[in-house]
Design a protein that fits this description.
This protein is an alpha/beta fold. The protein is built from seven helices and 13 strands.
């Protein structure tokens, strides 16, 4: 069997002299659930480390990974640096991870340049929106106090809310006859200004915050604000299988060209 090879962006633990293990070392890792979700239909999951080295020496680059792999998933994690969209942090704890931002923007650009499909999850949605000229709410509770709760630390991935699909979108087409569904909600930041030219595919109910987006064009670029890899059937949440199937079909189609 010729498995699809799907790259997953790395999360970062930056060097910390106070950490008892790997003291002073930067760690890059992939969260287990996102790897297992990608692998659940037979694809291979490959974490893509940030590049380091001299390309004149033949060191690997992000473009090399984009040529080798069949698609990219941008996983969740730390906040996006507000400077990425022309703002200063409202609080120091919302300063985000500028290093990861630059790595993931370059990573997405490399895959899109190769025509390989890109799927963003949670932070991945926010990063893609910013990379294409959009902005974010740095903290929903502070800037939109009238919005519903989108993150409850004590519940984490068991915190659930409803969303509605936008009629006529590709995402809505995966769920014919379904208007609203339940998804997990573990984010405190969200899209404020949508990237120019992008399409909203789902919004949260009742506050209308953007929960899924897609970039029209020849290259497959889409993202969701919830974590499909965290969903558990007993909770009555959305079956994310059609989203993964559509993404992997796009990757297979590009490989077959």
């Amino acid at each position: 069997m010729d498995h699809l090879k799907i790259g997953i962006s790395a999360c970062f633990f930056h060097a910390d002299p106070a950490r008892p293990i790997f003291t002073g070392k930067t760690l890059q890792y992939v969260e287990q659930s996102i790897a297992h979700w990608v692998m659940s239909t037979g694809a291979l999951a490959v974490m893509i480390p940030s590049p380091e080295g001299d390309t004149r020496r033949g060191d690997a680059t992000l473009a090399d990974y984009a040529r080798w792999l069949d698609g990219l998933v941008l996983e969740g994690g730390s906040d996006v640096w507000p400077g990425s969209y022309g703002e200063t942090p409202l609080q120091e704890r919302w300063s985000g991870d500028r290093i990861r931002d630059e790595y993931e923007k370059a990573l997405a650009a490399a895959f899109i340049a190769e025509g390989k499909p890109v799927l963003g999850v949670c932070r991945g949605l926010q990063l893609l929106n910013v990379a294409y000229g959009g902005t974010l709410y740095q903290d929903i509770a502070t800037q939109l106090p009238e919005a519903q709760s989108h993150r409850e630390a004590s519940l984490y991935d068991l915190h659930i809310h409803e969303l509605e699909f936008m009629p006529g979108t590709r995402l809505a087409g995966f769920y014919p006859g379904v208007a609203t569904v339940r998804v997990n909600s573990v984010h405190h930041q969200a899209i404020k200004d949508l990237a120019p030219g992008w399409v909203v595919e789902a919004r949260s109910v009742p506050d209308g915050l953007i929960e899924a987006v897609r970039r029209p064009g020849d290259s497959y670029v889409a993202a969701v604000q919830w974590h499909p890899e965290f969903h558990r059937p007993p909770l009555g949440t959305l079956d994310d299988g059609p989203i993964l199937h559509d993404y992997l079909e796009a990757a297979a189609a590009v490989r077959a060209r």
